[in-house]
Structures are given as structure tokens and as C-alpha cells.
Amino acid sequence: MPEHGDPILLPPSEISDATRRAEALIPTPYGTFRMVAYAGDAEDYTPHLALVHPEMDPNSEVIVRLHSECITGDLFGSMRCDCGEQLDRSLRMVQAGKGVVIYLRQEGRGIGIINKLKAYQLQDQGFDTIEANIHLGLEVDGRHYGVAQGILRDLGIRKIQLLTNNPLKVDSFDEGPIEVVRRLPIIVPPVQESEAYLKTKLVGMGHWLK
Ligand SMILES: Nc1nc2c(ncn2[C@@H]2O[C@H](COP(=O)(O)OP(=O)(O)OP(=O)(O)O)[C@@H](O)[C@H]2O)c(=O)[nH]1
């Protein structure tokens, strides 16, 4: 296992995307966060965001949520997925545990909002979330988490308790200097509109949803 301080073996673009560009305190109904924006380009309109508890101790086993952007769920409360409620719970848990939410701009598992809406059209015709991406000629999951490692390292964090049900997010830390000491599940019970999607996550994508 690499030691903290070892260089992270990341593609150059992901290292540069973890460049700190600006920060400010943001009071929210959950409590106050220090929001830090990270981007390769200082003028980037969609930087990755870290919402850091003002008393986060980087030497502790920090509670961390890596949350991929979901405009439909996070912003508008779409019930097709569990994203909005996962973000809500994460913000609560991170406030309570003095941790960090990293909001990664990987809308639609990396395919973007236009393609995600096309995928939803296909899902309404009977495709599942995996088949819809494939039908569109796109990756089922095009996300990379290297930039999240760069952001955590910028925040001085070495050990994390990761809030996720997704094995790929946990595995993404295998090669880096940051240790996942614990996985914390974040399971949202299905509603009628999200039932098929969550079943595909369980059966087709191997998420720990039981
Ligand atoms: N392509 C596609 N993306 C979707 C669909 N539903 C949700 N998403 C996206 O899936 C991603 C979910 O991100 P997260 O909640 O961070 O991660 P996760 O893979 O669900 O894993 P957890 O950490 O267990 O929540 C977001 O980028 C959503 O926009 C869908 O039907 N199709």
C-alpha cells in the first residue's frame, strides 16, 4: 500500500482538475460548509466541489461522500433514482461527523444530462439503465475517481470512512495513498418510480443494496 506523500498515479488531466481555485463559507439548512472549487481551468463553469465541515480534522478517519452530479435528483427531487435522498443524507451525516462531501461533475455516470434524458426515454420504453447507455453507444459507467483522491489529498486527508454502496468507488482507492478504513452504507428504500433502477444497480452493477 503506498504511503501518504507518495505521488498519486493519475492521468495529468485528473491531477490538474484537483487544483484549488476558490473557496468560501456557505451556510445551509444542514449547517455551514466551507465550499472549495477545484478545476484544471480557472474559468471552468462546472468545477468539482468539496463541501468541508469547518471543523474537519484531516488527521481523523474522515467521513467522506463522493457524490456524482445528478441534476434531476439532486436539484429537482426526481424519484427515478436515489441520488437526491443520498445527497440529503450525506450532507446531514457529514455535518454530524465533521466530514466532507465531494460533488463530482459526472452527470449521468459521466454521459451528461442530454444523454441521460435520452437514456430515460429508452428506459420508459423498457430498456434498463445499463442497456439504455449501451443502446446510445455510451459507456455504462464512464466515471473515474482519481480527481477525488487529488482533492482529498489537497485537504490533507489520509484515512476515510466512505459513504457508498458502490464497489467501484471503494476499489478506486486500491492504488492510491488514501486508505478506506470503513465503508458506510447509504441505502435509500425504493419507491415505485425507482424500483427498477435500484434493482438493476443491485443485480447488474453489483451495488451493496441489501
Ligand atoms: N446514465 C444514467 N445515469 C444515471 C441514471 N440514474 C442516475 N444516474 C446517475 O448516476 C450517478 C449516481 O451517482 P452516485 O449516487 O454518486 O453513485 P452511485 O454509483 O449510485 O453509488 P453510491 O455511492 O452507492 O450512491 C449520477 O451521476 C446520476 O446522474 C440513469 O438511469 N442513467
Automatic annotation (TrEMBL):
Pfam families reported in the protein's UniProt record? GTP_cyclohydro2
Binding residue positions for Zn(2+): 70, 81, 83
Q: Which organism is it from?
A: Neolewinella aquimaris
Enumerate the Gene3D superfamilies for this protein.
GTP cyclohydrolase II
The enzyme class is hydrolase
One GO molecular-function entry: 3,4-dihydroxy-2-butanone-4-phosphate synthase activity
| InterPro entries, per the entry | GTP_cyclohydro_II (IPR032677), RibA (IPR000926), RibA-like_sf (IPR036144)
List the active site.
141, 143
Cofactor(s) the record lists = Zn(2+)
Which keywords describe this protein according to UniProt? GTP-binding, Hydrolase, Lyase, Metal-binding, Nucleotide-binding, Riboflavin biosynthesis, Zinc
- Entry GO CC: cytosol
Residues given in the record as GTP binding sites: 65-69, 86, 107-109, 129, 164, 169
* Documented EC number(s): 3.5.4.25
GO terms of biological process kind: riboflavin biosynthetic process
Q: Give the pathway annotation.
A: Cofactor biosynthesis; riboflavin biosynthesis; 5-amino-6-(D-ribitylamino)uracil from GTP: step 1/4
Q: Which reaction does it catalyse?
A: GTP + 4 H2O = 2,5-diamino-6-hydroxy-4-(5-phosphoribosylamino)-pyrimidine + formate + 2 phosphate + 3 H(+)
| Location of the GTP cyclohydrolase II domain | 21-185
Note the superkingdom of the native organism: Bacteria
Q: How is the cofactor bound?
A: Binds 1 zinc ion per subunit.
Family designation: In the N-terminal section; belongs to the DHBP synthase family.
Protein name as annotated: GTP cyclohydrolase-2
Q: Which PANTHER family match?
A: 3,4-DIHYDROXY-2-BUTANONE 4-PHOSPHATE SYNTHASE, GTP CYCLOHYDROLASE II-RELATED
